[in-house]
Every structure is written in structure tokens, then in C-alpha cells.
Amino acid sequence: MRMLWHPARPLLLSLALFCACATPQAQQPGWLTGSADHPRYWRAAFVAEAGRSESSAAEAEAQARARVAERIGSRFAHGELIRIVDREQVGGAFYALAALDRAQADAALARDVQQEALSFAAVADRALFAREQQKSGDFAVAAAAADRLRPKLDASFALRSAVLGHAAPDDARFQKRRSALLAAEAEARTRRVIEVRVEGGSRQLRKLAVASVRKLGLRAVEGLRCEDASEWAAQDTTELVFEPDEVCGEGNPGEHCEVAVRVHSRACAGGGEGQGRIRLVRGVHPSDREQARAAAWGRITEALVEAAARDALRGAAYIQCTSPDC
Questions:
Q1: Inter-residue contact 87 to 57 (CB < 8 Å)
Q2: Which CATH number fits domain 192-315: 3.30.160.150, 3.40.640.10, 3.40.50.980, 3.40.50.970?
Q3: For the segment 33-73, what is each residue's pLDDT rounded down to a tens digit?
Q4: Could you state, in order of their start, the residue ranges of all structural domains in the chain?
Q5: Tell me, what's the pLDDT at 95?
Q6: What is the reported pLDDT for 321?
Q7: Rounded distance, CA 322 to CA 82, Å?
Q8: 9 pLDDT tier (thresholds 50, 70, 90)
Q9: What is the C-alpha R_g of the chain?
Q10: Measured between alpha carbons, how far apart are the two ends of the chain, in Å?
Q11: Residue 106 has pLDDT above 60, yes or no
Q12: 197 touches 228 (CB < 8 A)
């Protein structure tokens, strides 16, 4: 049968061809553009990101993995859990979808710090109990141990929150214990007293000893002992004792003196002790012993006294070292 020509026929043919070309674009899955969840990898349970490349499927996959990692932070150490779960090729472009199972990743991150979490709970509880029992030394030692663990756990819980999209199940328990410890440490700092005592030695050493404690941001009193503190005050009081060892004699040539200083710290209410030392210094004079002695004591500088006091107090967990040269 012969087909008759109709004026509208070219227009209809053009429209049909246009629709045929447009159909693949209209049927693109929503996950390619991020407008919808993947039917099996929905946002509530997965961190999912798409990658696109005009060059290769491998490039699209790498881009998708990188976008998932960017979403949760650069410190995520379990890249093997980010998997390519779907691929498409539309026209000349390659697409890939990378997904991270939120629950699986959270479990892996929790395992990474499991030992640290258990240790933190134990030493933090020990510190809080010591604070209740007014044992400042025991409190300082346990609190310092908890403080060393806390930064790693802080970072872990922040990363787990980014992975899950909300706080981890055990985060509230950690934060409660963490806050209680920080509050106890803040209270202890406001009440801390260092009783500085020099067993003999020069007036200059006593002056430097008191100044070194104050330079550390601590309150210093001079000449007292733990026995002089009341029961209430003893909880936050520490003795810091400087014990000079001086040896003078006649030598060649002339008079000479050697001085070294041992520094000892002791919490007045249980627990921590620490040691520091001022290294041996010498003074000489051809004929005058007192001038040799003065020369030796003059070599005990402010910096040496500060370092010895810091070592003793840090050894008793009374202060923490934050300087790179500690």
C-alpha cells in the first residue's frame, strides 16, 4: 500500500528522534547525580559518594573513594572498608559509587582504641576515687595517666561521630567520665600549694627555688613541711625540698669548692614522689676558700633550678610537660 505524504510528517519524525536521544539521559539513576539514594546503599546506613570520569572507570572509582574519605575526615585509617558498589557508563562518561558501611566502620574504629578506652576508664575512676579520699598524690598520678590517653580517645570519638552521623553509643559514658576528671583537675589546680624548702645552702638558692615554682604557675610558700598543713589543705599540698651537697678543700691550684643539689618532691596526702638534680658545679680561687665557694654557688643559675624543680614535680605527676624541650 502506498503511503501518502503529509505536511506534518517531517515534524513528527524529528520529535521521535529527539525523544530517542534524550531517553538515556532521563533514565540516569539518581545516585549518579546525588539526587536520590542508591536502592541498596541508602544514606542512613552508608556513607556513599559518586565519582565521574570522561577518561576511565578506574578514575571514576578513585574519585568516588576519595569523596567518601573527604566526607568523614582524612584520619580514617580503614580505607579497605570503602568499597565500589555500583558502576554505570552513560554516553561517554564513566560513573562509580563508593560506599562505607557506617556500622562496620564504627566497629573497626572502636576496636582500634579498645585498650585505650578500658585503660582510660580504669585510671580516670582511680583518680576520681583518690580525689574523694583526699589523696592528692594518688590523684595526680592517675589523672596524668588518664590525660595521656584522652587526646587519642577524643579524636576517635570525633571520627566515629562523623562516620555514624551522630554520637557513638558509648560516647556519652566517655564524656561523663572525661568531664568529671577535668572538673576535679581544675579544682585541684586552684588549690595547689608547693611548700618550698632548702636544707641549708645560700639565700640565692632559696630565692631561685621559690621563683622557679611560681614560674610554673603554681603557688609557693617557703620553709613549711607537710606536717604544717591542715588535714584539709594537705590534699593539695606538695613538698619540694632542695638538698645541696657542698664539698670544699685545698687543691692544685689553690682553693676549690664543688656544689650539687638534689631536689625531691612529695605529695603530702599519699602517692607521688619525684626527683630532680642540679648538676655538679665548681668554683676555684688561688687562695680564698670563700671566694671559691661563692664562685661555685654563682654557677647555679635560674635555668638549672627551674629544670630541676620541673623534673621533680613532673616525676610526681604534679605537672605535665607540654614543651618540646622537656
A1: yes
A2: 3.30.160.150
A3: 777 778 888 889 999 999 999 999 999 999 999 999 998 87
A4: 29-101, 113-189, 192-315
A5: 93
A6: 46
A7: 37
A8: very low
A9: 36
A10: 101
A11: yes
A12: no
Helix/strand/coil (H/E/C) assignment for every residue in the chain: CCCCCCCCHHHHHHHHHHHHHHHHHHCCCHHHHCCCCCCCCCCCCEEEEEEEECCCHHHHHHHHHHHHHHHHCCCCCCHHHEEEEEEEEECCEEEEEEEEEHHHHHHHHHHHCHHHHHHHHHHHHHHHHHHHCCCHHHHHHHHHHHHHHHHHHHHHHHHHHHHHCCCCCCHHHHHHHHHHHHHHHHHHHHHCEEEEEECCCCHHHHHHHHHHHHHCCCEEEECCCHHHCCHHHHCCEEEEEEEEEEEEEEECCEEEEEEEEEEEEEECCCCCEEEEEEEEEEEEECCCHHHHHHHHHHCCCHHHHHHHHHHHHHHCCCCCCCCCCC
Say how far apart CA 154 and CA 148 lie, in whole Å. Answer: 11
CA–CA separation, 104 vs 46, rounded Å? 10
- Report the topology of domain 29-101: Dodecin subunit-like (3.30.1660)
User: What count of Cα atoms within 13 Å lies in the side-chain half-sphere of residue 28?
Assistant: 18
Average pLDDT along the chain: 84
Q: Which residue has the cell 678543700?
A: 249
Cβ atoms of 276 and 311 closer than 8 Å? yes
Share of the chain above pLDDT 70, in %: 84
Gap between the Cα atoms of 262 and 275, Å rounded:
8
Q: Residue holding cell 606538695?
A: 238
* Cβ-based neighbour number of residue 18 at 10 Å: 10
Question: What residues pair up with 266 in beta bridges, in sequence order?
Answer: 239, 273
